[in-house]
Design brief:
The chain is an alpha+beta fold and 211 residues long. It is built from five helices and nine strands. The longest helix has 16 residues.
Length: 211
């Protein structure tokens, strides 16, 4: 299964995003050409500028002389960081304001890797010994993915005094022999809290599609 900075061999099925609310999220598709035309990533800078213009237009706010360029630069950096060439993950960016630092949420799928309960605890890091207190672990049910697990925890950073707020969701979809994991981590704890409802809605919305 891919991480934000890694790649892996292609795996079928893939994540289905058909019901995702694209008014709530900026979607960055996998950069493999499997789920979006490869030419869509021919010019990330042009993509970022187009999305930035749309965000300002939808907000009814005045971007000023540099607002579009500022947001476009932020989106371009997010694409390069969280969806590098060859990445097979979907990335969803949450913003309350066009110029806000986005909260990245990453969704990945891979072949089922072991017994269900053990795998879900591992994927959600439910037993993370580095957390400042025991992770909050809860079951979750999705109509599309079935029974899963979600966790919330605070994790210290080696190079920063600020804690990371980490949220993870995981499912094992027996029908497709696949594990699905969704995660975000940010030291902007207030943003994580503001996005919590939308994040859970996103997690419940994603599905699995097999050609």
């Amino acid at each position: 299964m891919t991480t934000p900075s890694g790649t892996r061999e292609y795996f079928w099925p893939i994540i289905d995003i058909d019901d995702v609310d694209d008014d709530a999220w900026v979607l960055i598709p996998p950069r493999t050409g499997r789920t979006a035309p490869a030419e869509a990533w021919g010019d990330i800078r042009a993509w970022a500028r187009e999305v930035a213009e749309d965000l300002w237009a939808d907000s009814d706010l005045d971007p000023g002389p540099h607002g579009v360029e500022f947001v476009a630069g932020t989106l371009e950096r997010c694409a390069e960081t969280f969806a590098p060439p060859g990445s097979d993950n979907w990335v969803f960016l949450h913003l309350d304001h066009p110029a806000e630092t986005p909260l990245p949420v990453i969704a990945a799928i891979g072949p089922a890797s072991g017994p269900r309960e053990e795998t879900l605890r591992a994927l959600t890091e439910a037993d993370d010994a580095t957390a400042v207190e025991p992770p909050v672990v809860k079951p979750i049910r999705s109509e599309k993915l079935g029974k899963g697990l979600t966790t919330f925890r605070y994790v210290p950073q080696e190079d920063s005094p600020h804690l990371l707020a980490c949220v993870r969701y995981a499912w094992q979809v027996e029908e497709h022999g696949a594990d699905v994991v969704i995660w975000t981590a940010s030291e902007d704890i207030a943003h994580v809290m503001r996005a919590a409802e939308k994040l859970e809605e996103l997690a419940r919305t994603l599905g699995v599609w097999a050609p």
